[in-house]
Amino acid sequence: MTYRAPVAEMVFALRHVAGIDAVLASGGHDMAPEDLTAILDEAARLADEVIAPLDRAGDRHGARLDDGSVTTAPGWPAAYRAFVAGGWNGIGAAPEHGGQGLPHLVAAACTEMWNGASLSFGLCPLLTAGGIEALAQHGSPELKERYLGKLVSGEWTATMNLTEPQAGSDLSALRTRAEPAGDGTYRITGSKIYITYGEHDLTDNIVHLVLARLRDAPAGTRGISLFLVPKRLPDGSLNDLRCSGIEHKLGIHASPTCSMAFGDHGGAVGWLIGEENRGLACMFTMMNSARLNVGLQGVGVAEAAFQHALDYARERRQGRAPGASEPSPIVEHADVQRMLLTMKAYTAAARGICYLTAEGLDAAEGAGGRAAHERASLLTPVAKAFSTDIANEVASLGVQVHGGMGFVEETGAAQLMRDARILGIYEGTNGIQAIDLVTRKLPLADGATVRAQIAAMRRVAEGLLKDGSPGFGHAAARLREGIASLDRATSHLLKALASNRPQDALPGATPYLRLFGLTQGAACLARAGLASSAALRSGETDPAHAARIALARFFAENLLTAAGGLEQAVIDGSGFADDAALALAG
Ligand SMILES: Cc1cc2nc3c(=O)[nH]c(=O)nc-3n(C[C@H](O)[C@H](O)[C@H](O)COP(=O)(O)OP(=O)(O)OC[C@H]3O[C@@H](n4cnc5c(N)ncnc54)[C@H](O)[C@@H]3O)c2cc1C
Fold first, then answer.
1. pTM of this prediction?
2. Which of 162, 426, 436, 437 to mutate to test the pocket of ligand 1 (most atoms within 8 A of CB)?
3. Does 425 contact ligand 1 (Cβ within 6 A)?
4. Which residues contact 213 (CB under 8 A, 6 or more apart)?
């Protein structure tokens, strides 16, 4: 299985879908537009040549726990050292903390690559990046001084300790306790489960960010505080915490998923991040960045599955395509072409949505201000859930393209499908993302944020009409219909929320998120297609331009056509909630 980071496509999407040149022109980044390809080429070398070759063996070998220590798969520590030595861990972090301060857009493209090469590997720096953000925004000057530099360089890694057996999606139920020790530190006791890279042999120290409850804290999520609990204390001694087990799981075998025990001997030493009882707000800083990055994991694994399936379809011969006298490579059969185009189009659409989200983050730090921040907030659950839903579909299609060879482990298609399955579950399940989109993000700025996003999609549809190239087929009409469906579904949900009837909105949350993702994805592909159409008119001959136009057409004519049905599910389908208990019992 060989992943090759699609640098040219990524650069094109960064420029023509997400508008990286405007981000760079607005200043604040030590990077010239002409550096973009060179940076991504360099990242691609690491992803393709160092990380990707470890992925299959990592799946077979997995991570091992022995007497509290976790050993990662062979080659993993050396690959991590190469990753850190290249300065990749801190590319998005601020220069004052030792980072390179490159735009979120560049960091997003790199995240996609690490995860296209190996989801298990890419997860480790993904969590560290979230930890860096939470600490940079909410940590005290002393904590920043002690921990940020080493996290940014990658000398240490970070984890996110939220989940407990009784507290998964519902963090209000968490029980881990924190007691002030009287010297400015706290003692943490309790157990966490499913902690990614909670223990490993890649670095000497691991900085755990732990949600816990102080005595007398208010019940529910308003009584949760965030603590920094390092594996090694500042004097080098080991803290009172341990990995008590690692999970045997469906996929991402090389990423250790740890049960963590804090305070067997009186309490692990921790430091408060932010204010007491405001921990969830701090953790949300980390989770929002992590949610976009999990969306990018989806793009990465979908790209890997597509490449893998395309390679196979070009080799495998079965049957005769119309007009062929000899057995044809299966890539010549229309149904296989449909599968491969679906894979490629979904992947490019999800890439566009994730990059647009990252652009919102960049713009919010520049002149875009609050509106850009709200745009990124609106798009974050779509980037996370749509990209990871399609990652599962694409990886499953990858197995289908391989036929029986996909179902056996030999080719690696099955591994990609197993690995992708977690993406819709962690960092807030995709159901929780849909609820977040509908109940928290649609009402932003009294609905003006979502209306502005829909208006931007309309401008793309108008662009298609104006362009008029026959290569776009019926794309302009399908995009207009999709946008109209999204618009009506949005009005329906905003009305239900305004009249305080969440029971009319929540049942349609998941189909609404899909409708949003499909329409936004179609608009992203159309933007890329329009840029390619302009390039062809100006005399460029790169065949990638015609391919982008064909892909935008395929998506609009074959995938976006689900929009009408999704609209009906959102508007007319919510009645199932009234008789769900009855229907499930029958
Ligand atoms: C491999 C792996 C790695 C992980 N890494 C980490 C990590 O590093 N740190 C960490 O803290 N956690 C981690 N997790 C935990 C992960 O974030 C949780 O599993 C996830 O949030 C879901 O919680 P749960 O498993 O308790 O499922 P539940 O919350 O029990 O959810 C079960 C189902 O019910 C639905 N549901 C739940 N509540 C609602 C609701 N209010 N409305 C509608 N539907 C609802 C969910 O969408 C889901 O479909 C990891 C998990 C795995 C498997």
1. 0.98
2. 426
3. yes
4. 174, 175, 176, 177, 178, 223, 224, 225
